[in-house]
């Protein structure tokens, strides 16, 4: 199965149960190429579980994960990555002992490319991100925002069709988050990637997303554009009910 350019990555009626506890219940959502999709919700709503189930890190208990017309719900993460579904993690998970270029090149080698080709691709991605000056820096000790950028660059190796970002702006200042939002917008607009953005920074999500899903207690309670989300009583209640402060 090759990369599915032009297809959607979707969850159809997905439930994920851990023992008797349902982290997700009958969730249906779709990520389309060239667009940014937001996924917000209070703590414990199921956002990371959603990313895990869309990227092969967690199998759905029931329901289907569809890449185009193919149910990939039982496919493992490394296979999905080869099919163009890439992600980042809440913690950057860089290899501390390697420099930035090698952190990216390792992904290329894991995808089956030669070391030389992987280094060329790594340099290309770092250039595209505007962070080529980091190439020779050790990953250990990188400033936090650079670490986040390198994590995204690594996920962009060999042009995935989908990029799922798990709280990429955590710990960033407003100015840094604004810079990041421009990178995210470019990933969709210039690379044609379908992006799913999970963030506690709701303002960032609303500013950059074409379509936003709201999870609460494992269920989608609202979806739509910025105006729909901002005017939703259900969304307001979910956040206030969970004492998450203002949106
Ligand atoms: N492997 C697991 N085993 C048991 N329960 C789990 C597991 N993974 C997640 N959960 C539970 O599922 C629920 C959803 O967790 P998840 O991390 O997906 O939420 P989240 O919306 O990403 O939360 P946060 O915003 O705090 O990161 C939580 O109650 C969590 O404790």
From TrEMBL:
Example of a GO MF term: ATP hydrolysis activity
Domain of life: Bacteria
PROSITE patterns assigned to the protein according to its UniProt record, in alphabetical order: ABC_TRANSPORTER_2 (PS50893)
Keywords from the UniProt entry: ATP-binding, Nucleotide-binding, Transport
Record keyword Nucleotide-binding present: yes
Limits of the ABC transporter domain: 9-242
SUPFAM superfamilies per UniProt: P-loop containing nucleoside triphosphate hydrolases
TM annotation in the entry: none
SMART domains registered for this protein in UniProt: AAA
GO cellular component: plasma membrane
UniProt cross-references to InterPro entries, sorted A to Z: AAA+_ATPase (IPR003593), ABC_AA/LPS_Transport (IPR051120), ABC_transporter-like_ATP-bd (IPR003439), P-loop_NTPase (IPR027417)
Entry protein name: ABC transporter ATP-binding protein
Organism: Shimia litoralis
């Amino acid at each position: 199965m090759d990369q599915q350019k032009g297809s959607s990555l979707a969850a159809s009626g997905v439930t994920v149960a851990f023992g008797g506890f349902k982290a997700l219940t009958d969730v249906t959502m779709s990520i389309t190429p060239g667009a940014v999709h937001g996924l917000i919700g209070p703590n414990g709503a199921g956002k990371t579980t959603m990313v895990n189930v869309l990227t092969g890190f967690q199998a759905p208990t029931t329901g289907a994960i569809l890449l185009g017309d193919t149910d990939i719900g039982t496919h493992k993460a490394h296979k999905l990555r080869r099919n163009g579904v890439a992600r980042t993690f809440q913690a950057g998970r860089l290899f501390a002992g390697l420099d930035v270029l090698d952190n990216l090149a390792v992904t290329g080698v894991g995808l089956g490319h030669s070391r030389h080709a992987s280094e060329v691709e790594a340099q290309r991605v770092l250039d595209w991100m505007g962070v080529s000056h980091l190439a020779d820096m050790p990953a250990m000790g990188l400033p936090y925002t650079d670490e986040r950028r390198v994590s995204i660059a690594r996920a962009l190796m060999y042009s995935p069709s989908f990029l799922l970002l798990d709280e990429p702006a955590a710990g960033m200042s407003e100015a840094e988050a604004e810079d990041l939002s421009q990178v995210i917008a470019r990933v969709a607009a210039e690379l044609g990637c379908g992006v799913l953005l999970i963030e506690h920074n709701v303002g960032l999500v609303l500013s950059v997303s074409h379509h936003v899903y709201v999870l609460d207690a494992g269920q989608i309670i609202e979806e739509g554009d910025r105006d729909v989300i901002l005017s939703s009583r259900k969304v307001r209640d979910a956040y206030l009910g969970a004492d998450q402060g203002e949106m």
